[in-house]
């Protein structure tokens, strides 16, 4: 889905910023689908960046990996950016800074794709969504005790916002045409434009 959305506006020689590059899985998908694109991946974990180098295989020559957060990324300008399964690790202030830093590195009208945990924070709704997440993990074969511990860790360590708040933060950072492209249980994904 992300590759499709990026392709709508990125030319054949696009330069893409991937924030939260992790182990390189999305970089590998993007690089495999678009052999003339180049990438800058940012992640604070040296171990994850090393895994990304291994995962990328023959695509590694088109990827520059940077250890740190978005502020260590080149200034760009980039043709597009992604931040998948990363924003929920940042508190509200850091998230605002991340979004502004990403926006500042993009060409005009460049797409930005973000996907993170995002669900209602209303009375009782947060607990219900966390319980649903744990139940889904159990239905996927994870031990119920491990699923419960994971749900508790998510509740106490991640910053999960209401979907409307996520959209407001994108707009406040200067992104336009914010639209939801993915909703799967507790996860939401948006595409917007610089």
Key features of this structure:
194 residues, alpha/beta, 7-stranded mixed beta sheet, globular
* Low-pLDDT sequence parts: none
Note the gap between the termini. Answer: 19 Å
Structural class: alpha/beta
Q: What's the mean pLDDT score?
A: 95
Biggest sheet character = 7 strands, mixed
Radius of gyration, Cα only, in angstroms?
17 Å
Number of strands: 7
Oligomer: single chain
* Strands side by side in the biggest sheet: 3-2-1-4-5-7-6
Number of helix segments? 7
Helix content: 40-55%
Structure description:
- This protein has 194 residues and is an alpha/beta fold.
- The protein is 40% helix and 23% strand.
- The chain has seven helices and seven strands; from the N terminus they run αβαβαββαβαααββ.
- It has helices at residues 2-7, 25-33, 46-56, 92-104, 125-139, 144-157, 163-172; strands at residues 15-19, 38-43, 63-67, 80-84, 111-117, 176-184, 187-193.
- Strands 3-2-1-4-5-7-6 form a seven-stranded mixed sheet, with helices on both faces.
- Helix 3 links the parallel strand 2 and strand 3.
- The two termini are 19 Å apart.
């Amino acid at each position: 889905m992300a590759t499709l959305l990026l392709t709508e506006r990125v030319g054949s020689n696009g330069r893409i910023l991937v924030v939260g590059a992790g182990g390189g899985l999305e970089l590998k998908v993007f690089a495999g689908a678009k052999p003339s694109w180049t990438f800058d991946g940012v992640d604070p974990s040296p171990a994850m960046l090393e895994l990304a180098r291994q995962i990328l295989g023959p695509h590694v020559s088109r990827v520059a990996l940077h250890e740190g957060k978005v502020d260590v990324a080149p200034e760009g300008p980039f043709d597009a950016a992604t931040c998948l399964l990363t924003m929920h690790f940042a508190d509200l202030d850091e998230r605002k800074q991340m979004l502004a830093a990403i926006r500042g590195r993009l060409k005009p009208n460049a797409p930005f794709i973000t996907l993170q945990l995002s669900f209602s924070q209303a009375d009782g709704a947060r607990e219900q969504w966390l319980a649903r997440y744990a139940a889904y993990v159990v239905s996927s074969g994870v031990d119920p005790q491990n699923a419960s511990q994971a749900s508790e860790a998510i509740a106490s360590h991640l910053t999960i916002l209401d979907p409307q708040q996520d959209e407001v933060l994108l707009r406040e950072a200067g992104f336009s045409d914010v639209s939801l492209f993915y909703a799967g249980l507790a996860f939401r994904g948006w595409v917007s434009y610089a």
